[in-house]
Design a protein that fits this description.
alpha+beta; five-stranded antiparallel beta sheet; 22 helices; about 25% strand
């Protein structure tokens, strides 16, 4: 996809937007397609493709015919685009509505639809202006990324393409290949579900994303039509929760405090050897404790138990033991595979590279012009940062824009953009000064986010959430109706007492004393902290604080706090959050260990989740990523948990430690 095609599409759009009576094909060919560069047939095919591309952007290309004699002559047919075609209606929001909308847009952060939410907010800012709002310290929810499968399914669902994937059937326990028309994605009982038409079964089916055992393949050459007004939340409302059952596991004495907290002692089965003996280790029954662990989903618990490596062994049921062994075996096989060649030379820092197309560039330009009209004089690097591109990419966009305009090409008929002293100004916009309508992705990102915020009482009880939802639905039009195909998780806190205490301490500037269970170190610690802000990942809540024991910023999960109380002291640290919103689960430091990991296509989303500094794309669609970690001792657990979708390449000692961890865990099931 070349810059030449982007420029041609942009010039065609400007010409058709600025023509009152329409332009004939001969005029368009001469001025935009440069007559003589292609045959009549080639020009006809190119023009039809370009019209279809503009229609995909939502612009209605009108065909104007002469009335009377010779009215059907193609030589006299004219084309134009109405000035109101695909324009986003002006949306005027109050400061309270802007606050709610900002929270909704920030839900996705680096998850799927994060870029779509950013684009939608940029359009709204150009449409109605952003009011100065202060986001509340205690209400910063986020939607947890559901892996690469989620992103692929969202793309296929909105483009209406079927998908293929391998799935672990709950009824048979066997992996099966499925071909599904994705109608909707929603969260229920803390799990993401795909709802769609299963072509193999010939009926509507539900699929838990946690049971996908392969990457999702989008069948781009095929299409489908979803049922009219499909609403995934309504479909999932009648889905029963999995029954609560109990697993029997052997756990090393003194280890896995978090698992012990939600378990109870279980009797040793008569005649069964303890795990230590099965593993061939020195020791007797006294080295292990047998626990009964409640669970609903064997795959979810299997993921957790796999991460504990040789510190746990599943006794029963067999389904759970198989789930753990499958992850460990996949991790071991991936660790032993040859290392691919890769090159970070062309990788952009801080984000996963993706193939850019002329459609991407044109979409960005259609946002860039109204943004510049409403934000005159911004520094060019600030503009690039707002659009998530490099300065070089932005300058390439601007160079195309200033060469684009009406077919005559006179100076006052071109887009007039200047960037003197690195500050960007625009004085001629040629009917591109208003943002285009929301795409389906953009409408889904904002409307699903607003729906998710209904789980927060302090927002649901106010009028701003309801009123901004109605305004957005009206502005989104038909695209907004398709937002029912996506439904977010509940974000309401489980422990409201601790949340209220932390929020009160933030507002009053008071220190807190807490007893905290660290999953990484498997230990309890006492700390005095200066609380800074609260946020959530789905319904798991965290608070960011300056920890006086660690002498730095730390994030604490509310469900791992054993005890919390004010210590009677005011906050004493001058350290403040970095200002980013939402707060990150961790902030990499320059002195952290730089770890190189390889990710399969299924695990590619982890590069975003852990803020990779550089990535290199592999031929199979996977990635090699460089990520900074302050504490590397838990990384073998991380590799085992993700069961063959991630492995450590460097440092070599850390890669060897993860292989030994996985091998020791597998050895316990050797018999």
């Amino acid at each position: 996809m070349s810059a030449q095609r982007t420029e041609r599409l942009l010039n065609l759009l400007i010409a058709l937007l600025n023509s009152k009576y329409g332009l004939r094909r001969s005029e368009l060919r001469e001025k935009i397609y440069h007559a003589g560069t292609a045959s009549d047939a080639a020009f006809g095919r190119m023009f039809e493709r370009d019209k279809n591309d503009l229609r995909e952007f939502g612009f209605d290309v009108e065909t104007v015919m002469n009335h009377g004699w010779n009215s059907d002559d193609p030589a006299t047919t004219r084309y134009r685009i109405g000035k109101e075609s695909n324009r986003l209606p002006d949306v005027q929001l109050t400061p309270d509505e802007w606050t709610v909308l900002l929270l909704a847009s920030q839900l996705w952060e680096r998850a799927a639809l994060g870029a779509a939410a950013t684009n939608a907010m940029r359009k709204l800012q150009a449409s109605g202006g952003l009011a100065d709002v202060e986001l509340p310290a205690g209400v910063q929810p986020r939607i947890k990324p559901a892996g690469q499968a989620f992103e692929d399914l969202v793309a296929a669902m909105h483009a209406q393409h079927p998908v293929r994937f391998r799935y672990l059937a709950g009824s048979t326990g066997k992996e099966e290949e499925r071909v599904v028309e994705p109608w909707g994605l929603g969260s229920r009982f803390g799990q993401w579900y795909l709802v769609g038409y299963d072509r193999v079964r010939g009926d509507q089916r539900y699929f838990r994303l946690s049971r996908f055992t392969s990457a999702v393949t989008v069948l781009e050459k095929e299409a489908f039509t979803a049922p009219a007004a499909f609403n995934v939340r309504a479909e999932l409302a009648g889905l029963p929760e999995l029954p609560l059952t109990s697993a029997v596991v052997d756990v090393r004495k003194g280890r896995l405090l978090g698992l012990r907290k939600r378990s109870e002692p279980a009797a040793v089965v008569a005649g069964e050897a303890p795990a230590a003996v099965v593993a061939g280790e020195a020791g007797a029954d006294g080295d292990w404790d047998r626990l009964a662990v409640p669970y609903r989903d064997a795959e979810l618990l299997g993921e957790e138990l796999a991460s504990y490596g040789p510190n746990v062994r599943v006794v029963a049921p067999a389904e759970l033991a198989t789930a753990v062994q499958r992850r460990l075996a996949s991790a071991a096989a991936f660790a032993a595979a040859p290392v691919p060649s890769f090159d970070f030379a062309d990788a952009a820092p801080g984000k996963r590279p993706r193939k850019r197309t002329s459609e991407d560039q044109l979409q960005r330009m259609l946002q860039l012009v109204p943004f510049l009209v409403h934000n005159q004089g911004l520094h060019i690097q600030d503009v690039a940062d707002r659009f998530g591109v490099t300065r070089k990419e932005l300058e390439n966009d601007l160079l195309i824009l200033i060469c684009s305009g009406l077919p005559q090409g006179y100076p006052d008929e071109l887009l007039d953009i200047q960037w003197e002293d690195d500050h960007v100004f625009i004085s001629q916009s040629l009917e591109l000064n208003r943002p285009v309508r929301f795409t389906v992705d953009e409408a889904c990102a904002l409307l699903t986010g607003l729906e998710t915020l209904n789980g927060l009482p302090e927002l649901a009880e106010g009028s701003a959430l309801e009123s901004v939802t109605l305004k957005l639905m009206a502005a989104a039009g038909e695209e907004g109706l398709r937002a029912g195909a996506l439904s977010g998780p509940e974000v309401g806190p489980d422990n409201s007492a601790n949340l209220d205490l932390i929020r009160s301490a933030i507002e009053s500037g008071s220190q807190l004393h807490l007893v905290y269970l660290s999953a990484q170190t498997d230990s309890l610690s006492e700390r005095d902290v200066d609380p800074l802000r609260l946020y959530s990942m789905d319904n798991t809540w965290y608070f960011e604080a300056y920890c006086h024991s660690a002498v730095g910023l730390r994030n604490f999960r509310l469900d791992r706090i054993e005890h919390l109380a004010p210590n009677g002291k005011p906050v004493s640290s001058p350290v403040k959050p970095d200002g980013g919103f939402p707060a990150k689960l961790f902030t990499p430091n320059d002195d952290d260990t730089l770890v190189t990991v390889q990710l399969t296509p299924r695990g590619a989303g982890l590069a975003d989740d852990y803020y990779a500094e550089r990535t290199a794309v592999l031929p199979d669609g996977g990635l090699v990523a460089e990520i900074r970690f302050g504490n590397t001792s838990w990384l073998p657990m991380f590799v085992a948990q993700h069961g063959g979708t991630v492995r450590i390449l460097a440092p070599a000692a850390l890669a060897e430690a993860s292989r030994e961890w996985i091998d020791a865990a597998l050895a316990q099931y050797a018999s």
